[in-house]
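FIELD: query
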Amino acid sequence: MTAKIIALTRYPQKGEPGVSLAEMALIEGLGIEGDRHMGTERQLSICTAEARRWMEAQSKEGLCFGRFRENILLEGLVAAALTNGDVLLLGDTVVEILASGKYCFPQCRLFSDQTPCPLSEGVIFAAVLQGGTVSLGDAVRVKA
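FIELD: result
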């Protein structure tokens, strides 16, 4: 399966719902145009569809279930195979992985119950190296 973008969301203000988009502008060195994390260290939050589906199917919520919100939801990408410094091509943009995997908090009940959480491998934080537009359905490739 070819990896592709299946959802795009911008979060203009903390605590407010995100805005679903058909396309999103990424600005080199800054992140998503109009997003509250624009210009911060982690410009993009990316999650695999598999990790998101797993969260939605759980009867017991982890700490991050209500906190974590991805900007880009991908299908068909094995995030666990990626490492910090890898480069992804998203549509006509280029992003660098700053953190592959999400930190687990000791106060999370999943962590304390030793329940494996796919967010620890299914989340990527990235910075924009080359800006442009990403759209729903765009292919996602790892740069060789």
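FIELD: remark
The longest strand covers residues 93-100.
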